[in-house]
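Notes from hallway chat w/ T.B., transcribed later so I don't forget. T.B. wanted the structure written out for a chain they're using in a teaching module, and asked if we could keep both sequence and structure tokens in one place. Agreed to drop them here.
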Amino acid sequence: MASALEEEPTMRKTLGLCLLALTLTAGTAQAQGLFLEKGDRGISAVAGGAAIGTGWSASVAPSYTYRGMFDVGVDLTWYGYNNSNSDANKLSAIGAMPFVNVYFLRAGDGPLPVSVSGTFAFEKRMFVGNGSEPNPDGWGMLLGGSLFRRMDFTNTFAGIPEIFLSYDLQATTWHSAANGANAAVHNQGEETKYQHKPRVFLRGNMAYKGDKLLYTVVPYVGYQTGFAVGANLGAIF
């Protein structure tokens, strides 16, 4: 006798894997400390969006930078899917992701001409819109690092090119509940799908120093199970 999980619509399961690839997007885990000098502190707020294949995401991320040494923050993201030709486009997800960025080396402090930082993040995702079927849920973990170089063009404007590399581990759990005439036969169950993948992004970080705030703009392109492009806007207090 086939299980309830085996009878779950294939398209919706496929969409869940697409959304799995969308999570922990490049716009997340904002490295706001790279805009600050060593020894500076700051509180930042960032909003951004990304397009990855046939999906998209929008996020906001408050964070705190301590003395230019590390950032701690949380990223709140909405993930969507754009395939209007199938029933699968009803499924989307909400993600909450605490993260930390550590600045191991600043250019000028050692033998390297670039700065080096590391990133760790953990995300919990809640899917919505699966109709009469139980919504899946999932989690993800990111471990990566970046190389960047600060270039001050004027007293108020700086550009910081950056390359970001990471390893992602992500999991989505599908739930199936007994229902209808088969309720006496089909029991509730679940199945977890895992994905491991690398990621690489080029970011064009830019900062403008105002009278009271530091404004940031970060366009980026790269590879994340497909071509990805996005941008973030932020301010550091």
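Follow-up for T.B.: DSSP finds one helix and eleven strands in the chain. Might be a good example for the class.
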